[in-house]
Amino acid sequence: MASQNSARQRLFARGSWSESSRIAEILRAETTGGMLLIAAAAIAIVWANTPWGGSYADLRDLRIGPEALHLDLTLGTWAADGLLAVFFFVAGLELKREFVAGDLRDPGRAAVPVAAAVGGMAVPALVFVLWNLGDGDALAGWAIPTATDIAFAVAVLAVISTHLPSGLRTFLLTLAVVDDLLAITIIAIFYTDELHLPFLLLALVPLAAFALLVQKRIRSPWLLVPLALITWVLVHESGVHATVAGVLLGFTVPVLRSHAAGGPDAGPGLAEHFEHRIRPLSAGFAVPVFAFFAAGVDVGGLSGLVEALADPIALGIVAGLVLGKTVGITGATWLLARFTRATLDEELSWVDVVGLAMLGGIGFTVSLLIGELAYGHGSDQVDHVKVGVLVGSLLAALLASVVLRARNRAYRRLAELETVDADGNAIPDVFETDRPGTEGPA
Q1: DSSP notation for 377-417
Q2: Taken in order 80, 291, 144, 330, is the CA torsion positive or negative?
Q3: Residue 154: closest CA among 397, 321, 345
Q4: Which of 145, 204, 384, 428 is most deeply buried (CB count within 10 A of its CB)?
Q5: Which tens digit of pLDDT belongs to each residue from 403-426?
Q6: CATH code, residues 13-191+241-415
Q7: Residue 434 CB neighbour total at 10 angstroms
Q8: Which pairing describes strands 343-344 and 10-11: parallel, antiparallel, or unpaired?
Q9: What confidence score (pLDDT) does residue 412 get?
Q10: Residues forming a β-bridge with 343
Q11: Beta bridge partners of 80
Q12: Are 124 and 182 within 8 A, CB to CB?
């Protein structure tokens, strides 16, 4: 029996030291961005609910841009369509990095976060639909509670001072990366009202030129930025949400050097370079500015808040984020373990999975974006969406904080263990002694 248990695959086991280090660095950057995101959203909410709330709305609805190119957009739209394209560009880089050189290249390790992400999107959508059955207009927002905001989530971890072990950190980031891919796919397929195919085909020209340059390791912003902007404009004109351009551009960037440039062993491709340069812009500016323009909602005091939360749309979002995410992520992970005979890493428990699943219920940035796409800017439904997303995300954060904080002593012990380097070779000993091939389901 002991030999059978040792042969079983382990869920949430440690990966390689290089992968763990990279993910820790990414999460540190996302923590700073998450703090700025929370601050920006808080400022917007407070401003919108003061006697000067009208000036906030005027600023958000101020139009700038060339009308001849159909780009005379409001500042709020520029933030949603333009700045979030930067966010999704980084998401595209990270997603490709995971598929080419990260956890997603290994089907065994990829199975856990992929299954969790799918379950964590399907169940919240189902909860929202069940809550709004019979209202065809309301059902347009079925995808709102499906997203996970990694920046907000890691900011919560920083606030409660939780020391997640590397296996759980890797799972959380990879789950969020797959979540981003599914979210942008949903936006492209289900929230494209009118498709202008000629513009979409034209967008392939600058996209291909961008791809050619980055494959040749040309990193000049004077060449790449104009091509990226032209791609964005053409995708915007096609009717597909312009953030899709960011993901497509990210996918073109090589993760590893080509054989012609010295082979993969010669070093990383441009993806790592761009990620280091652009992630701070995304996390520190693009996402917080979007949050500032998207989160501001005049709730009308306590009575207005109660009225908004009485709307089945808001209740469906809250239930989807808090209940749906927890059940979807935990349930999918348990089913995977059950049918593949995998076991949790011996240092962890199912309480840890439930805590991370609750943390996945923080669905701020993309949820707000999908809400505006579903119901239209300025509608009453969008205001109720904002209330639902804010309340649901805060409830998910509080519940996750309680669960994860209760396990913090165990996390601290594991985190300390992952820093011990007795032989002084700059690689913690646990990453050298863990046996390969026991890190995911068969």
Answers
A1: TT-HHHHHHHHHHHHHHHHHHHHHHHHHHHTHHHHHHHHHH
A2: positive
A3: 397
A4: 145
A5: 988 888 887 887 777 676 666 666
A6: 1.20.1530.10
A7: 17
A8: parallel
A9: 80
A10: 10
A11: none
A12: no
